[in-house]
Amino acid sequence: MNCDIIIPVYDQLNYTKACLESIKKHTDYPHRVIVVDDASSKETAEYLDRLSGENEIVLLRNQENLGWVKSVNKGIGFSKAKYACVMNNDILVYPSWLSEMVKIAQNDSQIGLVNPLWEMPRNFRGSRDEYFKNVVCKHRGEFIETDWARGYCFLIKREVLDRIGGLDERFSPGYYDDWDYSLRAINAGFIPVRAQGAFVWHYKNISFGSRFGKSVLNRLLNEKRKIFDNRWG
């Protein structure tokens, strides 16, 4: 396959199902889905086992909860495809999302990381489907350079992975890992961009929030910010 879609999963079965079903329905680019089960509970684990048995996903399993960063790296280490797309399990993808990002990645050898659009402007009066149809689709083939690739869903070229590897596990279990990865890619000669004609919907912090709670999330945020600032200023 030309792209491996890497999805760490820690429970949140309904979101996980919706994510995987949307990928199956709306992905027209050659791909395989690699799910990294981060020690989910029985119901989620059994669901993933069924999909793996039906060859709908490749299932990698952690015996203990390792968190986002290490689970992503496990998927990256398994992947040999030309592109890897790392994404959360609280994502819904829209038609041609992946093919549009790949098209943008192929536009310029300097482009190394690609985000899709992930939210609607506050002043848009309409549904997500209307926004996709009436706004996003009109910008197929367009992209803008960004300061960093947001970690909710981002495409990585194989050249980037070969040059800088995976996420820095000092940011485990998460936060600032995507900022750091983007700056490492930029220092290696690549640029992050956003594909203006690709759209996904991100619910945000579904698995992370349920696992840690607000106080722990705030502590992690501060801890990882210090690591990031010490490295990059």
Structure in words:
- This protein is of the alpha/beta class.
- The chain is built from nine helices and nine strands.
- It has helices spanning 13-26, 42-53, 68-78, 97-105, 128-134, 158-164, 177-187, 206-212, 214-232, and strands at 3-9, 31-38, 58-62, 83-87, 91-93, 111-117, 143-145, 153-157, 191-202.
- Strands 1, 2, 3, 4, 5, 6, 7, 8 and 9 form a nine-stranded mixed sheet that branches.
- Strand 1 (3-9), helix 1 (13-26) and strand 2 form a beta-alpha-beta unit.
- The longest helix is centred in the last third of the chain and has 19 residues, at 214-232.
- It is globular, with a radius of gyration of 17 Å.
- The model has no long low-confidence stretch (mean pLDDT 95).
User: What form results from the Cα inertia axes?
Assistant: globular
Oligomer: single chain
Average of the residue pLDDT scores: 95
Task: Give the helix proportion (percent range).
Answer: 40-55%
Assign the structural class, choosing from mainly alpha, mainly beta, alpha/beta, alpha+beta, or little secondary structure: alpha/beta
Largest sheet: number of strands, sense, barrel closure: 9 strands, mixed
How would the blueprint of this fold be written?
Layout: E1 3-9, H1 13-26, E2 31-38, H2 42-53, E3 58-62, H3 68-78, E4 83-87, E5 91-93, H4 97-105, E6 111-117, H5 128-134, E7 143-145, E8 153-157, H6 158-164, H7 177-187, E9 191-202, H8 206-212, H9 214-232
Summarize the structure.
The protein has 233 residues and is α/β, with parallel strands linked by helices.
